[in-house]
Each structure stands twice: as C-alpha cells, then as structure tokens.
Design goal:
Nucleotidyltransferase, domain 5; 10 strands; alpha/beta; 7 helices; 26% strand; binds iron/sulfur cluster; two-stranded antiparallel sheet; 2 domains; Alpha-Beta Plaits; 191 residues; elongated; 25% helix
C-alpha cells in the first residue's frame, strides 16, 4: 500500500508529472492523492518526492469506528459501549465501508466498573482483524486495548468528517501501529 503524508506534502506536483496514472493533486487542498496503486511508475514517484512524503507499507489497514446510529460517532460514552462498529478499509487514499458489526456485549457491560478487563476483552473480540479503533472517548481500558489496536481519538461527530481526519493523518497512524506493542503505544488524538 502506498501513502501520502499530508503533513509533509507541499503540493509541488512532481509526483503527478512522474506518474499521472497513479497520483493526482487535490486542487482544493493542495495535497497529492494516490488513485491507482497498481501502476509501476509509483516506484519512481516514491524516490522523486523532494519531501519524502510518499511511503510504501506492506499491510492493508482496517479501521473500526464506534457508533450508535451508523452516521455519527458515539459521543455519550466510551467507544466500547457503541451499539455498532463500522469497519472501513483504507485503500488508494480512501476509506471504504466493508461491514457493520453489532457489539453484542455493550449492554451487558452496564453493571461493570470503568476499566473492567471483561469490557476490554468484549470489545477486542468484536473487532478481530481491525488495526485501528476510532472513537471520541476510550476510558481506562485504553491501557489494554492499545496492545491490540492503535487507539485513535477524534473530535468530530459525522463519520464522513472522521474519514477525512483519518486520511489526513494516515502516516501518523501507521507510525503508531508500527510501534512495538502496547508499551510504546500511547493512543493518538487526530486533528
Ligand atoms: S512530489 Fe511529494 S511533496 Fe510534491 S506533491 Fe507529490 S507528494 Fe507532495
């Protein structure tokens, strides 16, 4: 998978001139965006960027967004108490909805205290295959969840806006994922 680090990209357009089939400039915000990862010329683009803003990673990335209504982030409680998790795959600069999973444990957790290990286990079991858990609040169980996921806090309501925030921070998310397990991960706030 190829990524553009929007914190490094200055919109010079060199990459587009090298490989117009695979990369485009988003005129309105001035960043480069990958549109087709299968093009051979992308290899040349990685070396041509003067900002080292284009990176290649091995794995695909899956995001889980906690929601009660499938349109907005859960905002009145910890992400583990969401009714649903929407699962998105990041690919070619975009997030695609793959599935919506019910959170079968979220009601059963009402009697337990914040930070109960059982809550973290229930959340983790509902999120097999996920790399990044996204919510407005994580609670004390973040110390357990960050062993399995990148835990990302986003201060947005609409899931469509959250997708833009994720895209703008994709390289920071990958850097957090590549840290060695939960001890080095702290959880990140995406702006
Ligand atoms: S070459 Fe690098 S800095 Fe220039 S637009 Fe492309 S990604 Fe951005």
């Amino acid at each position: 998978m190829v990524l553009v680090d929007k914190n490094q990209c200055v919109g010079c357009g060199i990459c587009v001139s090298v490989c117009p089939e695979a990369i485009t400039l988003e005129i309105e915000n001035g960043f480069a965006r990958i549109v087709k990862e299968s093009m051979d010329c992308l290899q040349k683009v990685i070396g041509a960027c003067p900002q080292n803003a284009i990176r290649k990673i091995k794995d695909r990335l899956f995001f889980a967004v906690g929601t009660d209504d499938r349109k907005t982030l859960k905002s009145n409680g910890h992400v583990g108490k969401s009714a649903y998790f929407q699962i998105f795959e990041y690919s070619e600069g975009n997030l695609f909805l793959k599935e919506t999973r019910e959170n079968p444990k979220y009601k059963e957790d009402e009697t337990k205290v914040h930070g109960d290990p059982g809550k973290a286990k229930a959340t983790a079991s509902a999120l097999a295959g996920v790399d990044v858990l996204v919510g407005t609040l994580m609670g004390p169980n973040i110390v357990r969840l960050k062993n399995q996921f990148v835990c990302a806090i986003v201060r947005k309501d609409e899931i469509d806006d959250v997708k833009d925030v994720i895209k703008n921070n994709i390289c920071a998310i990958v850097d957090e994922k590549n840290k060695k397990g939960g001890r080095e991960r702290k959880g990140i706030i995406l702006k």
